[in-house]
Fold this protein.
Amino acid sequence: MICGKKTRLRAMEREDIPLCLRWFNDPEVRQYLSMYMPLSVDEEERWFERQLERQDARVFAIETVEGVHIGNIGLHDLDWKNRNAELGVVIGEKAYWGLGYGSDAIRTLLRFAFDEMNLHRVHLRVFDFNERAIRCYRRCGFREEGRLRQGLYRGGAYHDVLLMGILQEEFCDLQGVASQSPEMAQSEAPLNER
Ligand SMILES: CC(C)(COP(=O)(O)OP(=O)(O)OC[C@H]1O[C@@H](n2cnc3c(N)ncnc32)[C@H](O)[C@@H]1OP(=O)(O)O)[C@@H](O)C(=O)NCCC(=O)NCCS
């Protein structure tokens, strides 16, 4: 378990597949993701099998501290030479949107990525109409690094894709600022200090 304040991250299990399938086949969730085709049980099972073998990706289940599985978060295209990776996240349970679970899971994964995996940068892509996600990423310290103009065709129109990233040193600086505030110190402290 990788523990945050509101969430904890655990390994994905085969038994998680039906729930993930429900999320990824929900158009309201899927509109924000790069996948756009309906997903079958077979496809999701094959994806799961491939993940077990991969050295360049790691996906975790996001649970509330009460143990409810509400989404997934992962690092993809892990590049061990340049020490970077792409972050992907989905809170599939829509009742949990906008309540701070996504921010907490992202900060928890970033802490693990920088303090334990020794990555140097983490980046992500987000569609320009996904205001909730953009706000959440900014709040976690991600900065806009670029924009793929009209890089996405969705719903009969072209949309921009934003590139955002955060460096190890920027995340450490944010941790320092947070730890100056006593009420945030416990949740924001590096793993090895908790
Ligand atoms: C994107 C996602 C991971 C964010 O997690 P979350 O728990 O919903 O986000 P948080 O509550 O931590 O933060 C959301 C921020 O957006 C704001 N927000 C909430 N609803 C919003 C809305 N409809 N429009 C704009 N901003 C909104 C919140 O106030 C908060 O900002 P603040 O902290 O400055 O007040 C989650 O919503 C999700 O998985 N959505 C569906 C799939 C998705 O978009 N994945 C990301 C693909 S790049």
